[in-house]
Amino acid sequence: MNSPIYPMTFIPKKRNFKLYYLAFPKPWKELLIQLQVSAYKKYDPEYYMKLFGLKACLNGWLDEVVNVGNMKANSDDSRWFVSLNEPDVHKICKIMKIWVTAEYELNDKATSETKAIAEKFKSEIDPDVLRYGITSEEVCLFNEDGTAAVDYAFDAFALYVANSLNGKTIPFFGQKLTFSNCGLKKLVSQPIEYKGQYYSYGLEFSVQTTPPQRECMLLVFPSVKRFVSNAWKKKIYLKENINALVKMSENKYRVMKMKQRKNIDEEKTEYFRDWNYADKRCYGIYHSIDAFPAADEVLKSPEIYVGKNAVPQILLPYKFGMDFTNMNIGTGVSVKEKCEFYHQLTPLLKDIAEPMGEVQSVRAIHYKKPDKKQFEVADIQKMRRERLKVCTGRDKITLEIYGHDSDEPLKNAIMEDICQYFGDTDGSDVKIEIEKRSIGSLGDMMNGKSYEDHLLRIKRVQESVEKSAEIKGAIVILKNTSEEKGDPKAALRAGFADTNRLTQFIVPDVLDEKAKDKPSESRIHGAVLDIFRQFGYTEFADNRNTVKNPACAADVIGVYAYQTLRPLWAAESKSPTLTAKILPAYVTFNVRSGQVKVECGLFDESRRSYPEALIAFSKLSRKDDFVDKCNQVARGGFVTKLLGLRDLYKESDGLVLVSCNGLTRNLWHGISDTSISGYNMKKPFVPEKIKIGNSISERTEAFTDSHLRIIRLREGVSTLEVPDYYTEINAKGEFKQASGVYRRKDVFWGIESRPDNIEYRNSYKNCRADNPIKSFDECALMEYYPLQLRGEDDPKQWVGYANLLRELMPENPSRQSVRLPAPLHLAKLMSEYFLLCDKEK
Questions:
Q1: 691-696 — which CB contacts under 8 Å span 24+ positions?
Q2: Using H for helix, E for strand and C for coil, what is the string for 452-510?
Q3: What is the C-alpha radius of gyration for the chain, rounded to an integer number of angstroms?
Q4: Among 233, 262, 230, 227, which residue's Cα sits nearest to residue 246?
Q5: Contact, 791 vs 353, CB < 8 A?
Q6: CB 108: neighbour CB atoms within 10 A?
Q7: Whole-angstrom distance, CA of residue 692 vs CA of residue 710
Q8: 712 strand-pairing partners
Q9: pLDDT digits 0-9 by tens, 671-706
Q10: β-pairing verdict for 472-477 and 555-565
Q11: Fold of the 372-534 domain
């Protein structure tokens, strides 16, 4: 049995807190409704107002804000604002006025009527009026059984913990880290300098529950933050805005957004940066903004503002793709560091929360991949060819490699990689034909990023590349596309799809001029495997294993939903009606047959093969009725599909996998912790009935007479819903590597097979103090909750099978697993073929 893991989780101990409330004055709300109606012509006061900007300003620039409520015409606003301390009405009023100016007066589309109402509203904002709405009470946040007693329990407790650690110093591998508040429930250490570059450690806190008991847990997430410390390029282009950390006072940072803008004249386009208006004005509430440096000054000379003695100190978080700066500090937090953080925090939180303790593994039986050490290379290659044959159902697959004459070494390396992976396919059941093609000028940067620019490139592809009767694959070698002009990848993908080709792009290393002669083997291999993934190829589960899991015969249906689909043809429009909020899709996968089928309400046919679905999505997303059709498909949520699956798998085994997030919870209320806690259980994981609808079509249905099972997933650290963890130390003082399935009460946590990379191994041995340039990799937890099983089922077998499905995707050479089980992973990657606005961001 695997050694235990230790989730970075605490159980709340302190239960009673004093909360302050602030009412929103009724006359103010009447004016705010007028303002919303004037600014948004289709706004209906019966629905909640658009107050995202106001919430962001209040949460970002005030201390100890627990909640800022939504408002509509008939809402109860007596507790509009909730705080751990008495609300500072003067600052709240100043922030509200700043928000009104930014949102309604500086808006390019603001009418004279809107501006007049905004001025009247600002004239009414008075701290003496607001002060009358302050109340307070002593509140018990948690019940005796550990469940939340009030709605504010989650945010209030996490915020209280973060505030209690603000200003605290801990020893950390020969260093001393002092933590400062840098936003709601977030802390950051002082910047640490290493050879002219800076980094910090961050801590973020979240209170979560698990089904069905809904006991509250405090989760701690450590991170490393790297800061831009130099800028060697004069001409800088940002791919996205920067959320800068600005030091306000001792132990306090605030976030100010640096936004990129552009000046366009007849000869050239110039880019410059500016501070977000609201953020800069909110900063002015605390300090003078007269001497605050311009955004471009900070970006072009970051070394002046990053040091501990800088006034003001401004930290620009580094992200991949910032090619104007050098970054040598490594990524990730090691297992060794996580353990140290947890042990240092435990005594500091002893009066507030207590450690959750270890979690043991369970023996989840599943098929194993064939051990490559037990087979000859030729045998492995033969098995891969057999698998390719059954997955695709094809006798021949044609791949075309597009590039320039100078790319010949890279073309040859790609061909060699295919040969090494599948072996010689001549005379085998499936033949792989490879053809070299010239890309010509199709791969050049486009003149711009508009839909018209894309259409021109799509048309050129259609004219230059002959349409194929069967689906082919195209590996396209492109030069560096990191500059500000139009990246052609989305247009090329659409154009090649119109010629019945799947596409995979590979760009030589832009930092190495010799990269075309010496391409990275791992990047080539990843590109090769990904193009075969697009054909529906998955790795084999070893059917030679004598230990069988009955779950492995089941069809697995990944229930997935895409959100905020705004087609590129609607980019210039400001109309919100040209964005489809949701599009459900379903990917069915069978491990043994290897078949992958896709269903979506947009398709004319009920089912398509995976490559057919990719090409269909590319074409459908460019049609004028795309948004309307998406909205029609999404209207019923998942109800019809789930009922159909229940009937389809009356006798044979089926397994539904659904990732639980805000989007899927809105479509399927029955997967939320709240709904699950209310189910009547025949036995664990066998409810009498479950909810399968949404707010429009809510209904409760029984699935006990079907062979359809349902497992709910929650992803790891990125969502702040599933714990981080560290592992046990062995007799030699080394941390043990962990993998497999672990269980705590009725929830299972899965850890993928151990990756074969140095970053993962470093994580169990080193810390950043040893060598700051080292990077650390991790295997994040995946949470599984069997929502619906049959009475005779062993839950760990079905969870083990779901976790195994993460190991069958071929396209990540350095890891044995991907984040999501195969059908959900395949569904997620289909979004690459939509031609959407967000592809350009």
A1: 692/638, 692/639, 692/642, 692/643, 692/668, 693/637, 693/639, 693/668, 693/669, 694/637, 694/639, 694/666, 694/667, 694/668, 694/669, 695/666, 695/669, 696/635, 696/636, 696/637
A2: HHHHHHHHHHHHHCCCCCCCEEEEEECCCCCCCCECCHHHHHHHHHHCCEEEEEECCCC
A3: 28
A4: 227
A5: no
A6: 5
A7: 11
A8: 658, 785
A9: 999 999 999 999 999 999 999 988 777 899 999 999
A10: unpaired
A11: Rossmann fold (3.40.50)
Tokens (6 digits) for 66: 């627990």
Evaluated on CA atoms 106, 112, 116, 118, the torsion sign reads negative
Helix (H), strand (E) at residue 127 = helix 127-131
* pLDDT value of residue 172: 97
Length of the chain in terms of residues written = 841
377 three-class SS = helix
Looking at this protein, which amino acid is placed at residue 117?
A: I
Structural element, H or E, at residue 631: helix 626-634
Distance separating alpha carbons of residues 501 and 489, to the nearest angstrom: 14
DSSP 725: E
**CA distances (Å), origin 700, targets 139, 268, 642, 665:** 35, 61, 12, 15
Please give the helix or strand (H or E) that residue 201 lies within, else none: strand 197-209
Q: In the predicted model, what is the mean pLDDT of residues 42-70?
A: 94
Given the structure tokens 């047959």, which residue do they identify? Answer: 593
Q: What is the mean pLDDT of residues 173-200?
A: 96
Spatial contact of 313 and 246, defined as CB atoms under 8 Å apart: yes
Strands 747-751 and 782-788: antiparallel
- Cα separation, 686 vs 663, in Å, equals 25
pLDDT at 267: 66
Task: Supply the pLDDT for residue 541.
Answer: 58
- Let me know if 614 is exposed, middle or buried by CB neighbors in 10 A (0-12, 13-18, 19+): buried
3-state SS string over 141-173?
A: CECCCCCECCCCHHHHHHHHHHHHHCCCEEEEC
The rounded percent of the chain whose pLDDT value lies above 70 is 94
Answer for the pair 238, 26: CB distance below 8 angstroms, yes or no. Answer: no
- Whether 129 and 2 have beta carbons less than 8 Å apart is answered as no
CA 405 from chain centre, in angstroms, equals 38
Using DSSP, state whether 56 is helix, strand or coil. Answer: helix
Which residues pair with residue 19 across a beta bridge? Answer: 137
- Please give the DSSP secondary-structure letter assigned to residue 719: G
Report the alpha-carbon distance of residue 412 to residue 423 in Å, rounded: 15
Q: How many CA atoms lie within 13 A of 595 on its CB side?
A: 11
DSSP state of 624: T
Tell the residue number behind the tokens 């010509």, with chain if given: 440
Q: Contact 351/14 with Cβ under 8 angstroms?
A: yes
Give me 435's structure tokens. 């053809």
Whether the Cβ atoms of residue 344 and residue 773 lie closer than 8 Å to each other: no
Identify the pLDDT of residue 515. 40
**How far, in whole angstroms, is CA 397 from its chain's centroid?**
33
Q: Are 764 and 727 in contact (CB under 8 A)?
A: yes
In the sheet with 16-22, reading across from the earlier edge strand, the strands are 65-68, 81-83, 16-22, 134-140
Per-residue pLDDT tens for 644-680?
999 999 999 999 999 998 889 888 999 999 999 999 9
Q: What mean pLDDT comes out for the span 283-305?
A: 96
Strands across the sheet with 747-751, in order?
361-362, 740-744, 747-751, 782-788, 708-714, 654-659, 555-565, 580-589, 596-599, 608-609
Q: Tell which wins on pLDDT, 726 or 375.
A: 726
Residue 106: how many CA atoms within 13 Å on its side-chain side? Answer: 10
Distance of alpha carbon 736 from alpha carbon 370, whole angstroms: 24
Tokens of 525: 């291999």
Residue 567's identity, in one-letter code, is P
pTM as predicted:
0.93
Q: What is the pLDDT of residues 332-354, one digit of tens each?
A: 999 999 999 999 999 999 999 99
DSSP sequence for 386-415: HHHHHHH--SEEEEEEEE-GGGHHHHHHHH
pLDDT value of position 481: 60
Residue 246's SS3 state is strand
